UniProtKB/TrEMBL annotation:
Record's protein name: Glutamine synthetase
Job description of the protein: Catalyzes the ATP-dependent biosynthesis of glutamine from glutamate and ammonia.
UniProt keyword Chaperone, yes or no: no
Organism of this sequence: Micromonospora vinacea
Keywords: ATP-binding, Ligase, Nucleotide-binding
A Pfam family reported for this protein in Swiss-Prot or TrEMBL: Gln-synt_C
Family: Belongs to the glutamine synthetase family.
Location of the GS beta-grasp domain: 3-81
Amino acid sequence: MTYKAEYIWIDGSEPTAKLRSKTKIIADGAEPGTWGFDGSSTNQAEGRSSDRVLEPVATYPDPIRGGTHLLVLCEVFNIDGTPHESNTRAQLRPVADRFAAQQPLFGIEQEYTFFKGSRPLGFPDGGYPAPQGGYYCGVGADEIYGRAVVEKHLDNCLAAGLTISGINAEVMPGQWEFQVGPLSPLEVSDQLWIARWLLHRTAEDFGISATLEPKPARGDWNGAGAHTNFSTSAMRENYAAIIEACEALGRGDKPLEHIRNYGAGVEARLTGAHETAPWSEYSYGVSDRGASVRIPWQVEIDKMGYIEDRRPNANVDPYTVTRLIVDTCCTALGA
Ligand code: ADP
Ligand code: MN
Ligand code: MN
Ligand code: MN
Ligand code: MN
């Protein structure tokens, strides 16, 4: 007998990478092995030398197909064995290793927006819904659009064994959030990419698409972010480490280095309005949803816990955001 292995990888699309997948039939008892694909069709190769290599790095039970079928997350390599330039997971690996003793943990809040055709789900044809106010964590058909898809996606994530900490309806109609974590840098990033794949795949069966666009609707509507919550063992034990992490993110060139890698179009989302801080001015504060980095109120009371970097866009690459935060904060905390 055989099972189906859905090989999932991240492509080379600019400015934001896309998920790709294809199916391999594997004999029962055999592991998903190395495979290949046509990189010229995914912006990862020229047609003249198009072969790229898929190397499995994590497997999950496939909640769509059920049974013994698997989802297989892959890294992309060149045929000479070097990581492909689009392979940002390979760049995270050595940084995660170097600072593993500090036990970094991440929880990422993935916001996204459903679309039906060319309009956000819940936006009437040719018009606009009532202004923001009642939609966030709302209930009822006048405020909530797409809950059946959201529930199915949550069940699929849990059946795949992902560490989801919660879900909620967001500020704009058709906008939702799920949170992955807390987990190590590689685990949270792998699981976020799988949860994203499951989101697109689950919505597909409802004839609905999901986008990670940071500004899916023009006008007075909230954007979509990927707030990135972070702690180390020191931060989970003392407040001086919490403050040092916040300070480290604001030192020298760090604010710009981070912002440049926090997702395409981040400047358009971090305007200073709609619960954001302006991208050009780094700030941190307790309970402040208008700051770049927020210290949750409970963390100030407990004098330990985690911080929330509110800047990353919904379309951010988690391998990159976790690499930068670990590098910046763990270097400072380890000094
Ligand atoms: P918000 O109030 O900003 O909407 P959420 O409840 O959506 O907060 O998300 C908080 C996130 O913080 C969750 O993903 C959770 O897993 C994560 N988290 C909790 N504790 C820690 C910790 N010690 N280190 C890192 N992340 C954490
Ligand atoms: Mn072919
Ligand atoms: Mn949240
Ligand atoms: Mn949110
Ligand atoms: Mn948040």
